[in-house]
Every structure is written in C-alpha cells, then in structure tokens.
Amino acid sequence: MQDTPGGWKRFVRKVEPYVPGEQPSDRNMIKLNTNENPYPPSPDVVRALRMMSSDENRLYPDPNSTVLVNAVAERYGVKPSQVFVGVGSDDVLANAFLTFFNSENPILFPDVTYSFYKVWAACYGIPYETVPLTEDWRIDPALYARKNGGIVFPNPNAPTGVAMDRSAVREILLKNRDVVVIVDEAYVDFGAESALPLLEEFDNLLVVQTFSKSRSMAGMRIGFAIGNEELIRCLSDVRFSINSYTMNRPSLAAGTAAIRDEDYFRKTLDKIMETRDSVKDLLEAMGFFCLESCANFLFVSHPDVPAKELFEALRERHIYVRYFSQPRIDNFLRITIGTTEQMQVLLDSLTRILRERAV
User: Fold this and answer.
1) pTM higher than 0.70 for the full model?
2) 55 burial class (0-12, 13-18, 19+ CB within 10 angstroms)?
3) Low pLDDT (below 70) residues in the chain
4) Which is nearest to 170 in space by CA: 136, 209, 200, 138?
C-alpha cells in the first residue's frame, strides 16, 4: 500500500526557534542590539591566530580541548576535570539541558529571561514552568522552593541586567539539592557576583560563562561550564555522543590567548562599565526609567514614548537596539553599551526624537 504523500511530516519535530538579534549589513550603522563588546579582542588573540600554520587546519582538533580547558581551569582556580568547553555558551547550555533535565517534573526559570530556555525545553521535550520576577524585576529565591526537575537562570538576568547577590543564589541551592541548578553567567564580569565560590558547597551547581561578551569574542563561539567532576563527566559523555570535535583549532588558540591576558580584560571591562553608568545617568536626566544593570547593556523605557516607536525612530537613523514584543517588557528597549562615541550619537538621536515628538 502506498503511503500518503507528505505523510513524513507527522514525524517531524516542530519547534518555534529562538530569534537572535538582527545582524544588519548597513555600513553606516551603530549596532547596539546584540550585546557584542565594542572593543577588539586582546592583541594576544591576534598574535595567536597569526602564528597558526594553515596546515594545522587539515587536522582534527583535540577532542578534549586540553589547552583551553587547562587555561580556564588555571584562571578560575579549579581542576581541568571540572571544566567543559563548547561552541559558545548556547552550545554548553543546550548540552546541559539535554544531560541534566531528564525528569517528569518541570524545570523552572524566570518568566522574563533568556528566551532560548523555552526553545531548548520544547526541542528536548522537557516540561517547564516559568516563575514570575518580582515587581522590581528581581528573582525571588522563595518562589523556587517547590518540586521541580531542575533550575536555570541568568545572573545577571537578561534582558533586564538585574543581578542577584551570591547569598540569594545560595538560598536557591539550599532548597534544591536534589536537582541540577544552572547559573548562566554570560554577563557576570560586568559587575555581578559569580556563583563559582559556591561550588565547594554544592555538587549540583553548574556555572556557565562565555567569551562572547566580556572577552570580545562573539565571532569565535567559545563558552564553558564549571562544576564538580561528576557533573562535567556526565556533560562530556552526552556531548561526545553527538559530536567529538566541537571546538575548532583557531578557537582553541584564540580562547587560550584571551583568557591569559588579564590586564587587557580588566581594562576593557572598566571602560564598558564606566560608559554604562554615565549613559544611565544621562538617560535618566532625559526622563527615561533605567533598571540597575550589572551587564553590558541597559534596559530602559520612557513614560511618554512607546518603546516600539523609539526603536523604529532609532532604526531610521541607522541605530539598532533591541525591542522585545513580549508581555511585561514590550515597553522597554535593551541598549548595548558601545564606545563613548557611539553612545553619544545614541543620546543625541534620542534627544532629537523626543524633541520632535513634543512639538
């Protein structure tokens, strides 16, 4: 008997994909929509890539990413067996979802947070529930003290930029010792407290970070997780069941050089945080409401002008920021911190937009 044409569609896994920030090709743009670092990577990264022989790329990379794993372990004072690296923190998180969230109970994450969490849960068939942020946009640890199959949250949160102190993270861990708790620290270097010191106390904690933001390497796709040795072994077993060669040779060389240049790392962070704080003050003086940010972006709204209108007006001026058409946050813009010159153009443009609208 002949099957019905198109019958194969019944067996396709259908998922609503994550939508990343727009990547425009406008040469004259100011791009403040995807939280990229406005400064180049460490000069040591450039030297490391130039020193690579083109002949190396005909060979597979080290499946264990040894040189990068050792560099991360040395930087954070842990054993290499406690480190897992992947193709950006998204790859690390996706593997962690697949490895650790395998319960009939729902995983928990905030209602306003990184939207990829819902996508991974749907893709892997993981039940989930969202936990509301408080009225002042904070994660309330008490709301996570209920039956669940795992917990994940960013700290600082995205897209709000609001951070939890380490004691609040510890409170969540204390009430959830029987499930894996993932703290997504993509923006932690910009002023928040890392959960890494809690690893000695909690064997169910996995801390995930990235080179994309604070180390200016979004294009190289490098992320890592740190946890106890058994967690990392389980994570590696799943990863090697999918792909043995996730990190390419240039990324291994560049990432190792980047993490060893602590001086450049600190100088870049200081510039971004100084710019962020001064821009926040200037926006507030213009009438904007700005959440207190520990990230490389600001989450802002204006009491008189809808966020979507501001987003479109800035776009017409070739300035790209991020607008989310989602409940609770559809009147906010997320503005990446650029160079001082870029931020001045943004401020000048917003001043003109507000003035023109008031006429």
Assistant:
1) yes
2) exposed
3) 1-3, 359
4) 200
